[in-house]
Amino acid sequence: MVKIIGRKTEIRELLDSYNKNQAQLVAIYGRRRVGKTFLVDEALKGKITFRHAGLSPVDEIGKKNLLKDQLKHFYNSLRLHGMPRGKCPSSWLDAFFMLEEHLQQKDNGEKQVVFLDELPWMDTPRSGFLTAFEGFWNGWGCHRDNLMVVVCGSANSWILDNLIHNHGGLYGRVTRSIKLYPFSLKECEEYFRENGFLLSRYDIVQSQMILGGIPYYFNCFNREYSFSQNIDALFWGESPKLQDEFDKLFASVFSKPEEMKRIVLALAKRRKGYTRNEISELTGIDTGGNFTRMLKALVESNFVDQYYPFGESKKEIYYKLTDPFCLFYSKFLSGVKITDPYFWTNSQNSQQIISWRGFAFEDLCFRHIKEIKKALGISGVSAEYSAWNVSGDANSDGAQVDLLIRRKDNVTNLCEMKFYSDEFEVSKAFYRTMLSRTNRLMEHLPKKHVIHPTLVTTFGLKRNEYSGVFNKVITLDDLF
């Protein structure tokens, strides 16, 4: 039996819904390739009565799969699950009626599980899918105490808008929603160990900095290769498996993938992100209702974060690209011609990759705030998090802080992230920089606050006459 890495809470929730003596409509959503289908297959193994997966909206040669194709595919799924041969449905109303008849014929009083995977793909333009699904659930499904319908989708905004936050006929009908997140560092390590990979924590961190903890991407690794060889094979080697993943990722999730990619690649140009108007200027996309929906969809799909920068007015929201895979693609593959099939292995000590590691490690630390708080001993303390940038002027230098943790106990952790292959050594110049940042930050904090300079690094801090500038050190082991 395949071991499921992590997902203990999600499995418990699925089984709890399965064991309830009333109709259940469960919605599972999360980023493409994060393992939604695998979760359902393993947690409900041997319990699924009918399963169907929508056709991708665009096939391998660019042809759109519209209503006729989707209905034919649904009919074929019914046939595979034992429905007698009949006439292919001409509408989703007919298709769901066929499903109702099929389930009634198979009903022996035991629990019936219907698994509809990639549900948003079935909702093609002017297909009437949502109306038909609403009729299926409200008119029939919700009245059957032994029925559990599980729906999945990678288009998070579709699942949220049309099911979980629906204000029409499906309002309040979802009995449980489960958002599936990428693997944490600890889960990445467990995955590699369980599958026989010999990777150090240093390399596991880099794997998440590139691939973002997405199980499918890790599944493409070759046990016989080193970490660097695997990255080369995935992106630059012969028949690289992930070279086209960026395009596929957006085509499978968004109705306007080209515009979404333009926004994402524009956001990759500046680490702090951009305001709504700045994004519009960079991409040439008008700031209308569609633009608002596109930004919302990118945020809900966890490609982008929205935030108010510390120390600035809360009138302007900033949008920042945070998806590791997209950030890596924008840096090394988008508009970049690399002909060396061993580029990653041969460039380990290049300034380009050293610089990338530094920024990618900062992003990884933002994704592991919970572990950082635990290492600081403040898991239960409420806090706000952000980076901080302040411009210099004629009287003072500018300051840039990787991460501020502003705590309710009147302490602010000024965090500096350093990805090094050895212990980090504080130089006299860096010591003075840290003192300057601390002094500048004090100007923007309440008088009752104190600042704790904190180092987050790979292998710890080398003690010298300047190392006392940090009163707390967090290492890679603390992030696992």
Structural summary, described in words:
The strands form four sheets. Strands 2-3-4-1-5 form a five-stranded parallel beta sheet, with helices on both faces. It is built from 21 helices and 15 strands. Helix 4 (92-106) packs parallel to helix 6, helix 12 packs across helix 13 (257-267) and helix 13 (257-267) packs across helix 14. It is an alpha/beta fold. The chain starts with 7 loop residues before the first helix and ends with a helix. It is elongated. Helices cover 42% and strands 17% of the residues. The longest helix has 17 residues, at 351-367. The protein has four domains: 8-180, 3-Layer(aba) Sandwich (Rossmann fold), CATH 3.40.50.300; 185-243 and 334-359, no CATH class; 246-332, Orthogonal Bundle (Arc Repressor Mutant, subunit A), CATH 1.10.10; 370-479, Trna Endonuclease, Chain: A, domain 1 (3-Layer(aba) Sandwich), CATH 3.40.1350.
Write the layout of secondary structure elements.
Elements: H1 8-18, E1 24-30, H2 36-43, E2 48-53, H3 67-80, H4 92-106, E3 112-117, H5 119-122, H6 129-139, E4 147-153, H7 156-164, E5 176-180, H8 185-194, H9 201-211, H10 215-218, H11 227-235, H12 245-253, H13 257-267, E6 274-275, H14 276-283, H15 289-300, E7 304-307, E8 318-321, H16 324-332, H17 343-346, H18 351-367, H19 369-376, E9 383-390, E10 399-407, E11 411-418, E12 424-425, H20 428-442, E13 450-457, E14 461-462, E15 472-474, H21 476-479
